[in-house]
Amino acid sequence: MNNTVIWNIIRFFVLLALQGLFLKRISDGWVTGSLYINVFLYPLFILLLPLQTPRTGVLLLSFLMGIGVDLFYDSPGVHAAALTAMGYARALFLSLYEPREGYKLNDKPTPAGLGMNWFMKYSASLMVLHLLVYFSVDAFSPIYILGILLRTFFTFVSSMAAVLIFVFIFMPKR
Question: Which sequence ranges are marked TM in the entry (predicted)?
Fold first, then answer.
């Protein structure tokens, strides 16, 4: 096994444990408990997968991470559906934000690897997609669209802050 595979296995379990054991407990009720701000860090695993990871591998890993989070949250596949949708769309956003000169073989989807501007566009786009799917599947009705959009916005802000903090602490510029 090469170094990249080992680091991704470690990242999988660390992010799963962080999400399930710690971040699950951080939910602040606002407006008499009708709106919750969640912190979702586990999508970072899919965001940081190597660029050359095959789509089927990304989908399988997305589903496994989502099911793992669903086990912690006692939810019936909501996280798995949202993260699998994000994993499916990852290739689209990678091609959409591909640099003019293309990706190099050793490029990593990190601020240090492809730049802060690229990472913000890439991670924000996929995080918004993930959260919209998550809250839509959770609500399971279009009549709650305002609640879905509000939850998506507030959770996006807190989740992106957590993603950026994690990336800057554990993946400093080399």
Answer: 5-23, 29-49, 79-97, 118-137, 143-171
